[in-house]
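In the previous chapter we treated chains in isolation. Here, by contrast, the input contains two separate entities that must be folded as one system, with a combined length of 319 residues.
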Amino acid sequence: MVLNEQDRELIAAIQGGLPLVAKPYAAIAAQLGLTEDEVLARLETLQTAGLIKRMGVVVKHRALGYRANAMVVWDIPADEVERIGALLAGEACVTLCYQRPRRLPAWGYNLFCMIHGRERDSVLRRLEQIVAYHGLERIQHTVLFSGRSFKQRGAHYVETDNLQRRLRRSHG
Amino acid sequence: MDSIDASIVNRLQEGLPVCPRPFDDVAVRLGLSVNELLSRVQRLLDDKVLTRFGPMFNAENMGGALSLCAMQVPANRYEQVTAKVNAFPEVAHNYERDHLLNMWFVIATEHPEQAGAVIRQIEQTTGCQVYDMPKQEEFYIGLKLAV
C-alpha cells in the first residue's frame, strides 16, 4: 500500500506516542483537523495492511530487572536454518530470532536470538539446556552480553517535519 | 511496581484495540477505573519501565528499512564514537557488547536506499568499518515476557 499525505501526517502525529487519555484517537483527530472516525478508520486500514502491528507498549527489560540481555549467535548450515530458527524461536526465554547475513571474515554467524534473564548465570544455564534438549552441540554459537545501553527509543518512520514540531509544541 | 502494575504491563504488551475508548476494557478486567489505569501507565512511563504507548510499526511493510550494524571500536575512543553514532537520528538504539565487534546499533530509515548513505556517513565520521546485517528472516516468537 502507498501512504498518502494524510497517512504520513497521522503517522507523524502518533509515532512518538499517543496521549494517555481515555479517548486518545479523538485527541489526535482534534490535532489533525480530522474526525475521530476518520482516524480510527485509517488506523484500521494501516493495521490490516500490516504497516502497524498493534497499538501497545514496549517494555524496557532492564527496568524490570532483566539485566542480562544476551545476544546468542549461531553459525548454522543453510539447509538447517529454517528448522533450528523455528526451534529456538519457540523457546520461552527467546524474545527475538532473526536470520542475518554473515560478514566474513569478521563475523561468521547467521542466526541471532535474544535471551533476556535476570542474571548472566541463569541465561547461560538456560542456553545450555536449550543446546542439550535440541541436540545443537555441533552448531557453533557464542554469547554477547550487553554492557552499557546508550540509546533506546522506538524507530521513527516518518521524518520529523514541521508538522511534528508543531505537534510537540502543542504538547507543551 | 506492584502486582497490579505487573498485570498492566503484561496486558498492554498484547496490544490495545483501535476503538474510541481503548483503555476501558483493560481497566474493567483489572478492576480499575480508567483514570486509575491511565495514571498507573503514566507512572510506568515516567519510571521508564515502559516506552511510549503507541503504534508498533512493521518497518518493511512501512517501506522503510531496519538493519542491525556492528563496529569494532577502540576502547580509548568508545565514548567519542558513541556520541558520533548516536547523533544520527536514524540510529534507534545502541548497545555495547563483549566481542571484538563491540558496538551494536540499529539503523531505521524511511526508505531502504537511505541506509547505505547513513552507514557511509557513520564510517566517515568515526573511521570505523560498519558491518551491516539486515534481517533476512524473522522467526515468529509471539509475546511472552511474563513479568
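Chain B has five helices and six strands. The longest helix of chain B spans residues 112-126. Compare these points with the single-chain example from earlier in the chapter.
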